[in-house]
Amino acid sequence: MSVKTLPDLVPDADLHLPHEAERRLSNGLTVIAIRRSAVPLVELRLRIPFGRAPLAPATLLSQALFTGTSALSSIDLAAELQAVGGSLAAGLDPDRLLISGNALADGLDRTLELLAGVLTDATYPAEEVATERERLVDSIQVALSQPAHLVRVALLKRIYDTHPYAVQTPTPDEIRSVEPAGLRELHAERVRPAGATLVLVGDIDPDQAIDVAEKVLGGWTGSAPDGVIPATPEIRTGPLLLVDRPGSVQSSLRLALPGITRTDPDYAAFTVANLIFGGYFSSRWVENIREDKGYTYGSHSVVEHFVAGSTWQGAAEVATEVTGPSLLETLYELGRIASLPPGEEELEQARRYALGTLRLGMSTQSGLAGLASVYAGFGLRLEHLREHSEAIAAVTREEVFAAGARYLAPSRAVTVVLGDADKIESQLSVLTAVERSTE
Amino acid sequence: MAPRIKIPATKYPVERFTLGNGLRVVLSPDRSAPVVGVAVVYDVGIRSEPEGRTGFAHLFEHLMFQGSANLEKLAHFRHVQGAGGTFNGSTHLDYTDYYEELPSGGLERALFLEADRMRGPRLTEENLRNQVDVVKEEIRVNVLNRPYGGFPWLKLPPVMFDTFANAHDGYGSFEDLESATVEDAQGFFDRYYACGNAVLSVAGDFDVAEATAMIERHFGDVPARPAPELPDFAEAGLTEEKRETYLDRIAPLPAVAAGWGVPDPISDFDAYLPYAVLAEVLTDGDASRLVERLVQRDRSATNLGGYLGFMGDEYQVRNPTALLLQAHLPPGGDAGKVLQTIDEELDRLVTDGLKAGELDRTQARMATRLLQGTDDVLGRAQPMAVLELQRGRPELLNELPKLVSEVTAEKIVAAASTLRPECRASIEVIPGAAQ
């Protein structure tokens, strides 16, 4: 066998950002259109600010938005969309109502017409709403049996306390009490174009697409009340919160720390420090607790951005019998990223990963649409990708070290563990103070 | 009804060649974004596992990432990600794939990494034990600790099929996984991971001549080894209804899945394709037959899905496979009644045929999904590799939207007429956590 050496990388060409056409319509809707024509489709994302909307009605509204207009039943709507290869669905997070979908590029006009019908004339018929209400109750019931959901519920409560972000899923009973009239009221008040952003990406002429959007959505009018959410609270340190799930054959380990926004001067260094700790597969955390010790199938850490604040979160599902050792190694790795500068090669590898995956993320219509829509929600445009790339390219070991010390110190982290409490409490309490959840 | 929309197609170029050692190669250049996708697929999957070694194909997939001739453990991950890329692998019934997506400057590195492990992974006791632990955690995350884990892909095959190859648990029992040896792994590699049993494919931003030279450089000296003979996994279809239930101790609500045998996806593709369209006619969106009836009208189901192949890889599976329908039910839901309603609706389709516009709109939506899949470089590299491996026809990926749009109403009805209760297998989830 011949000796083989690793081929060098060919340096990346300059970052090429597609042209973003943008227009703010007279009704307050911002339309952003981007051409990527590799496949004859168009992706659509409509982001409507929904901060402080009442949780249960807003959640059901997102599920029932397409149940009918005065002209079309839910089935007509679905069929008409399907006829142009289209599909639209709505989702909710604490900041926004997001309508997402795609269609054959030739079907853009029709898709926007159907969307406009729903935005201006959704009727929430009693029968259909009742069906969607029961489906939503069932799906929440199923979520409540999933460890990843349960531990997130506990973590959000632990991080945000009494802030509106603390509870992001309504209870089945809260959903059961929502009536169609409440949905119509909420729709009239909040499903408004002022402050909303529509992103269209695909095999389109951007200016023409905006013209169509202007013509079709021009009749959607009105402004929403102020939905500004107060800044998120400081995360209070305290004992590890242990949530009992009797019979669980794994423990769900979650850690959280205060995060920083995408435009913070430290963000690039923080991004790289996070990657080195646990933000990608070749991170210290994964190499330690998966590839060295076999405690988990996967661990991952991310920065989660909401409009009113950002948090850093780490997540791993670990075998019940090694829950304590998994926490030990996690705290060790956090301590290491916070106390020592990273290696030169480690930094370069993480840097290249950060730069490369930005390019991968914008290489498809759906990736571009998602990115443009998320950015728009924070007042940014694709140009921010270039600024962020340049900042990542320039980050030094010293800056990453400083960011690790400032933002990833284990002494400031809160920890939530969900699992079979009787089997894991003693493992955890030898490492840190533990408090059992009473909820 | 709107006028029928024209179904577009993609025209991704396809170049094919075979190296002297028997490795088949597919190239599909497209310079529209500065990224490449690389996929290597081996013609071995869950169905080829020996008895007593359930889960071995998947465990072996993990071992392929644990070092090779010129690479230490962890090096593969670091080199791909350090080139700005992402990677993964997956184990299917009929194939195992490995893939990377990277900025185009990382192409040669990805080829080097794939060639190195094609020559031989580092199969050590330590790595084997480590990955057995990792796979056990994967099974806990995806099956044991989660409601509806393995439903229906692990639960329905043993009801539907009789032979070990088709019926066994592809994730594997802990007992089988724990007793696996390095010798087993070496034997599996020797038998199935021959370059004559593999396809390499590259899609995205590259020059064909340059890529061809790189491929020669890195794969050209992989020792030639022929493919093993491909077994026939065919089974006689069901002649009477088979129905089973199982208790899922953490599931809060009932669920049911049903499967019917379908024509051979490879040798009888013309007969197979209408079933793919039928599955969508029945279940795609609120205007589809079964969603309208079961979810919207009867409220006897809360969610419904229909597709071909147990792993959602309808154009990358060999015979035998199935058309599957699965439904999640409301509290106290009656799975038997849901199955009976499905039978009724199939009868109605056979008797009354399709409604005006029903087929056109289903085909339009299928085209969108097919085209969206190919916008991603891996959405071309992966299926093209498998289509070459199983059919010698990677260009089929470009043709699928058109072929789907040409399926006639008569063929849909004929397909529906074969989905009889007496050739149906079903599995029902009894919720153990019902309140």
TrEMBL record, chain A:
Domain Peptidase M16 C-terminal span(s) in chain numbering: 182-352
Sample GO molecular function, one term: metal ion binding
The name this protein goes by in its record: Putative M16-family peptidase
Domain of life from the UniProt record: Bacteria
The Peptidase M16 N-terminal domain, residue ranges: 59-169
Database matches in SUPFAM superfamilies: LuxS/MPP-like metallohydrolase (SSF63411)
Automatic annotation (TrEMBL), chain B:
Similarity remark: Belongs to the peptidase M16 family.
GO molecular function, one term: metallopeptidase activity
Protein name (record): Putative M16-family peptidase
UniProt domain Peptidase M16 N-terminal: residue ranges: 24-141
Keyword check for Nucleotidyltransferase: no
Domain Peptidase M16 C-terminal: 180-365
PANTHER family reported in the protein's UniProt record: NARDILYSIN, PROTEIN YHJJ
Transmembrane intervals: none
An annotated GO BP: proteolysis
Keywords recorded for this protein, A-Z: Hydrolase, Metalloprotease, Protease, Zinc
